[in-house]
Amino acid sequence: MTPAAIRLAAEAAERQSAEVTEVGARIAWVVGLVVFIAFVYWLMRQGWKWRGALQNDLPELPAAPDGLPAHRLALAGRYHGSTTAGQWLDRIVAHGLGLRSRVELTLTDAGLDVVRPGAGDFFVPAAQLRGARLDKGIAGKVLTEGGLLVVTWAHGGKLIDSGFRSDRAAEHAAWVEAINLMNPSITTEGAER
Fold first, then answer.
1. Cβ pair 141, 163 in contact under 8 A
2. Averaged pLDDT score across all residues of the chain
3. Spatial distance between the Cα atoms of 95 and 102, rounded to a whole number of angstroms
4. Count of alpha carbons within 13 angstroms of residue 44, beta-carbon side
5. Is the pTM of the predicted complex or chain greater than 0.85?
6. Are 58 and 156 a contacting pair, CB within 8 Å?
7. Fewer CB within 10 A of the terminal residue: the chain, N end or C end?
């Protein structure tokens, strides 16, 4: 190699090395990215709080009464959230209804007992149950057709859809039938006529 070629190769290596070792610029980019992500997270949290404040008119969720009758059905699985009935993207976050969790459902003649470890438990009296159906999605969760058990119930003058997924999806059909048979005025779509 000629001395000129060696000098050009050394200059090229030096330029390349200088671009890689600009630590200050890289740190500034990383800090900027972290600040941006934190800001987006903060905005999402503020939106969640705002939605909860808008839903303040929803009364406290009832607790299960003592001495429930023998259960008709029991299910272990996941609770995926609640929405305004018929509007699968309008999530309800008030009173912890927007929090996903494990769930143990128990259907009795008195109503539906929803036990959520790590989140608030609640009870839906039989008179408040409006129906059940198989669906494919609820706010933030989309499954295959019929992969989600959606129970419609009334609370505080509002109809609510709550989405559940059993650990054994074959149980869903029995739940739909049992809940819909509890009130003869309920259609298979879970709405009153």
1. yes
2. 83
3. 17
4. 6
5. no
6. yes
7. C
Backbone phi, psi, residue 108, to 5°: -125, 175
Question: Three-state SS string across the chain, please?
Answer: CCHHHHHHHHHHHHHHHHHHCCHHHHHHHHHHHHHHHHHHHHHHHHHHHHHHHHCCCCCCCCCCCCCCCCEEEEEEEEEEEEEECCCCCCEECHHHCCCCEEEEEEEECCEEEEECCCCCCEEEEHHHEEEEEEECEECCEECCCCCEEEEEEEECCEEEEEEEEECCHHHHHHHHHHHHHCCCCECCCCCEC
pLDDT tens, position by position, 76-114: 999 998 988 888 888 888 888 888 899 999 999 889 999
Cβ-based neighbour number of residue 163 at 10 Å: 24
CB atoms inside a 10 Å sphere around CB 56: 9
Of the candidates 88, 84, 61, 81, the residue with the CA atom closest to the CA atom of residue 159: 84
